[in-house]
Specification:
This protein is an alpha/beta fold and 411 residues long. It has helices at residues 7-25, 53-66, 86-98, 111-122, 137-152, 165-174, 277-283, 306-341, 365-371, 399-409; strands spanning 130-134, 156-160, 177-181, 200-205, 225-229, 254-258, 270-274, 285-286, 295-296, 345-347, 355-360, 378-382, 385-391. The longest helix is centred in the last third of the chain and has 36 residues, at 306-341.
Length: 411
């Protein structure tokens, strides 16, 4: 069957898609931030006959839009997942419509230079000279440790016990010994417990998942390789007010940053950055008869994730990113201050990178979270005790609304 390009149908379908999205955005924010889960109202077997594009969009709108968690809800103060700006939606749509493959220069004559450009924009903030984009910081960390093995002959990976699980995964994939070092009471790697690093890739966290802690980033010259997992806290380097909290990151050999966290990008957008990119990329390059340029890193075919990021940085500029990050940091401070003033509530520590751990005294945090209906927080556990975890990734979050919701239902 011929697949003709029906321009009128394309335009009609796109208009419908935009109209349905606008309608969903106009819905009241009084709905619970996390919808109830249930069975999908879709066929259990692949349909023999398709319904067509427009009918399918109408079928899926409640699931894909109204049924999704509203990360921009004022009561959503839970995870390291931000709402995305509209300019990324448009750029992601454009990228999908052209389906560029960065594996081949001829299938990405603009997409490849765009990725190079956005790396050049961001790498200097971390003291790095380049790198490339990957779908997430798990792949970024794997890539950095792969370079460490190839260039420095490391035999083990050393990190804090509070490091992200992707570090352990990467060590396993690469055939490297994994050694977790105890963390102190503030969730930071305990420098006195590190031991010999002469054959080790040391992974330091700049914003741990559980509490947003930053490991000591300086005085690690004896490590064979230094990688900083800045998946969460990395964008603080774009804020003049908070960049100093990551001082020492410029001493790393490699840095991973998730753009789909505090750079407000759609999922599967991250950076692996190197202090000596030509050497690192050369160690991670493969060629083949069908390739016009070497394939660098873990990925083969991949799309233009850089386009939404370029669009965002052009639209906002560094100052626009800074304003949003500073605002999110203010939300976390406001939440911590409110918790500290409430006799019924307990604060774990003052936030360092916008992550607040707190709970109601004498109550189980999991029970509190389960009973929340007007707000949403996540959970974490430390030394056998559970805490509510609030991450300031949503610039629209209202910390007082979240605290009030907890005080209303927990007893």
């Amino acid at each position: 069957m011929a697949m003709d390009n029906d321009f009128a149908a394309d335009v009609g379908g796109l208009n419908l898609a935009v109209r349905l999205l606008v309608d969903a955005l106009a819905a009241s924010d009084d709905a619970p931030p996390v919808p109830a889960s249930g069975t999908l109202p879709l066929p259990t077997l692949l349909p023999e006959t398709g319904r067509g594009g427009e009918a399918t969009l109408r079928d899926l709108v409640d699931l894909a839009l109204r049924g999704a968690t509203n990360l921009g809800h004022p009561g959503f103060l839970a995870h390291m997942d931000p709402p995305t700006p509209w300019v990324t939606w448009a750029a992601a749509l454009w990228a999908a419509s052209r389906n560029q493959n960065l594996l081949h220069p001829e299938t990405s004559p603009v997409a490849r230079p765009l990725e190079d450009l956005v790396i050049r924009w961001l790498a200097p903030a971390f003291g790095m000279d380049g790198g490339h984009m990957v779908p997430g910081s798990s792949v970024a960390t794997l890539t950095g440790l792969w370079a460490a093995r190839e260039l420095r002959g490391v035999t083990e990976v050393v990190c804090s016990e509070r490091a992200h699980l992707s570090v352990r995964k990467a060590a396993h994939i690469l055939g490297l010994t994994y050694r977790a070092v105890p963390a102190d009471a503030d969730h930071r790697l305990d420098r006195d417990k590190v031991g010999d690093l002469s054959r080790a890739a040391l992974v330091l966290s700049a914003g741990t998942v559980a509490a947003g802690a930053i490991d000591p980033l300086t005085n690690w010259s004896l490590a064979a390789w230094r990688h900083v997992d800045a998946a969460w806290g990395g964008p603080l380097r774009l804020s003049e007010s908070f960049a100093h909290r990551l001082d020492g990151i410029e001493l790393a050999d490699s840095v991973s940053v998730s753009a789909h966290k505090w750079l407000f990008q759609p999922k599967e957008s991250a950076l692996i950055l190197f202090r000596d990119t030509p050497t690192a990329h050369n160690a991670l390059s493969f060629g083949g008869g069908h390739l016009a340029a070497p394939n660098v890193g873990v990925l083969g075919s991949h799309g233009s994730a850089a386009l939404p990021l370029v669009a965002t940085l052009l639209a906002w500029g560094r100052k626009g990113v800074e304003e949003r990050i500073n605002h999110c940091m203010h939300i976390s401070v406001e939440l911590a201050e409110r918790v500290s003033k409430e006799p019924e509530l307990e604060l774990f520590r003052q936030p360092t990178t916008g992550v607040v751990l707190w709970r109601r005294r004498g109550s189980d945090a999991a029970t509190t979270r389960r009973r929340l209906t007007k707000a949403f927080v996540s959970l974490t556990e430390f030394q056998g005790e559970r805490w509510l975890r609030s991450v300031a990734a949503n610039p629209m979050a209202d910390p007082n609304r979240v605290v009030d919701a907890v005080l209303e239902i927990a007893g």
